[in-house]
Amino acid sequence: MLTSNLADLFALMVFGHMLGDYPLQGAFLSRAKNRSDPLPGTPWYQALAAHAIIQGGIVGIITGSLVLALLETVIHALIDDAKCRNKIGFNLDQLLHILCKLLWIGLLVIWT
Prior knowledge:
This protein is mainly alpha-helical.
């Protein structure tokens, strides 16, 4: 873990999430990951995986945990896919992503 202060760790993960969900996702991945309205010639699942892997990589870099990186990748993809299929709205999507960061911190506390 790169920091021992849990508030700092949470802040870094929220910052990383915002970085990954906005500038690093961009318009292409944002649209291409949507199975309900895919870009022609772009497999939606590849775009969704690329975005989720970016998010997982950010968590892995910040926490130093490959397990948390993999968990973030899978959960992020599931949440975003639910949003793209109109099962949840934008605000719930963002809330769930932030709650995951709290869960990752909880798991780090338990594991260390």
